[in-house]
Amino acid sequence: MTKSSADPDASQAAAGPAPYAATPDAVPGSWVGRAPRALQPYLQLMRADRPVGVWLLFIPCLWGLALAAASGFAAPVLLYYAALMGVGAYVMRAAGCTYNDIVDRDIDARVARTALRPIPSGAVSVRNAVLLLVGLCLAGLVVLLQFNRAAIIVGLCSLGLVAAYPFMKRITWWPQAWLGLTFNWGALVGYAAAAGVLTPAAFALYGAGIFWTIGYDTIYAHQDAEDDALIGVKSAALVLGERTRPWLGGFYAATIVLFALAGALAGASPVYFIALVPAGLHLARQTRRLDIHDSHICLSLFKSNRNAGLLLLLAPLCEAVAAMI
């Protein structure tokens, strides 16, 4: 027996997926809203309308490539590798978001900012989300296999970090630290792709990225602090509370110090250290402007870390150019 057209469920099914509704942190006028309606929930699941996460995953890859080039490992295919890493960052960030939403679907349904995400809202079934995840992971593997053996091995070593990340908010008050370990792995992959080895300079660069991520993701977490406290989800934002600003300054100071150490270990010239000044000023301004009680400021500061990451990239890029002159 079929459902009557007067049945609300039947009517909704006939109408198809709901029209695209941009979240507050989506890019205004995103192309996702102009995509075929059937694809829109999947594009939202991949965070295609929120590209800042791709930048935050991609930029450390560029750090690694540039630092290796500045250290004398001027591989002739660096631009090709950079393009590959851009594609890989897009695909693997989408895979990570899809995996995270599958694991967190029950939590997301209880948080105001995430309740309308495709899985908790019912726009995408768990089965279809898993199929999408498999497809994205296969695409990411194809990209990874284009690199040298060292980069492939380093890249595969990140899988455990990625798999564990969604569970960290249930285990530790510092899931931001685990995100830092995960999101900056590209610095090691980029360095290994260009140099064929990992050096102490590469690990110092990785450490800088970890502290950078702890900082910006703590800012981001303050948007959900009240909901997280109610449902029992842990985050650095809840631990730090009103003390977030001085701690943020400490995280960002560690970022600059470790970035400088990476340059020192790589034998960088004064050009490298001078080029770090704009990034340091930018991060200091973020710290000064932080208001943990204003979600709009938190989101704006979080998004500004794309510019912070690119400013940090200036140091190894300037050094690489100086080394060629």
Q: What does the model show?
A:
It is a single chain. The protein is mainly alpha-helical and 325 residues long. The chain has a single domain (37-324), classed as UbiA prenyltransferase (Tetracycline Repressor, domain 2, Orthogonal Bundle), CATH 1.10.357. 71% of the residues lie in helices and 0% in strands. The chain is built from 19 helices and no strands. The protein has helices at residues 8-15, 40-45, 52-70, 78-103, 105-108, 118-121, 126-144, 149-156, 159-171, 175-183, 185-195, 200-221, 225-231, 236-240, 244-265, 270-274, 277-289, 295-303, 305-324. Helix 3 (52-70) runs parallel beside helix 11, helix 3 packs antiparallel against helix 12 and helix 12 (200-221) packs antiparallel against helix 18 (295-303). Mean pLDDT is 90; it is low at 1-15.
Q: Which of globular, elongated, flat, extended, rod-shaped describes the shape?
A: globular
Which structural class should the secondary elements be placed in? Answer: mainly alpha
CATH class designation:
Mainly Alpha
- Fraction of helical residues: over 70%
Total strand segments: 0
What is the quaternary state of this protein?
A: single chain
Mean pLDDT: 90
Q: CATH architecture, please?
A: Orthogonal Bundle
Measured between the Cα atoms of the first and last residue, the distance is: 78 Å
